[in-house]
Design goal:
3-stranded antiparallel sheet; binds flavin mononucleotide; mainly beta
Length: 178
């Protein structure tokens, strides 16, 4: 059994003003890959967002998650989507990451892709595609957390991943496994 001698109530530092900028800097110490999450709307429009909040959740059932800012123009389309395409970007796809990180904008001009489950676009050149259907949505403060069930996946490209760390893109040092 685990016991704690800490007194009940919030720790004293909880009263200190919260430094949002320092919080972002601290979160930036966690290196992530970069994904573009896509969906098709009922009207046939397509949305896509660059996402570093992608993560694996469960093997059985196969679940993944990502969180969408409540301020994102794509949020409503994501909430009503019947399918998602999750595209794991390779090191050579920094341009695509920047393109899908721009609010609205002409994200799809000359972007090579095919359609996956419920028409969600799958980007050519991605290291992996996960075709998903909605599973659950949860409150995540200024984001909404999407849990999605993977129905198909592919690993079409053997390449190096695009890394996001301390607010910038990075590449893995070749052969630098430790
Ligand atoms: C590397 C990187 C990671 C990002 N990760 C997320 C994320 O996890 N969730 C999110 O809501 N926005 C994230 N963004 C920002 C969105 O991609 C950006 O706001 C996008 O323009 C939203 O598109 P929309 O407003 O047209 O829907 C990220 C941006 C970059 C460059």
């Amino acid at each position: 059994m685990v016991t704690s001698s800490a007194p009940p109530g919030p720790p004293p530092e909880a009263d200190a003003p919260f430094d949002g900028r320092a919080f972002r800097t601290a979160l930036g110490q966690f290196a992530t890959g970069v994904a573009v999450v896509t969906a098709s709307t009922q009207d046939g429009d397509v949305v896509g967002m660059t996402m570093s909040s992608f993560n694996s959740v469960s093997l059985d059932p196969p679940l993944v998650l990502f969180s969408v800012a409540r301020s994102a123009y794509s949020l409503a389309a994501m909430q009503s989507a019947k399918g998602f395409g999750i595209n794991i970007l390779g090191q050579h796809q920094q341009d695509l990451s920047n393109r899908f990180a721009r609010a609205l904008g002409d994200k799809w001009n000359a972007v090579d892709h095919r359609r996956g489950v419920h028409d969600a676009p799958l980007l050519s050149g991605a290291l992996a595609h996960f075709e998903c259907v909605p599973y659950a949505r949860h409150d995540g403060g200024d984001h909404e957390i999407f849990l999605a069930r993977v129905v198909r996946f592919h690993v079409p490209e053997a390449g190096e991943p695009l890394i996001f760390f301390r607010g910038r893109y990075h590449a893995l040092a070749s052969g630098a496994a430790c």
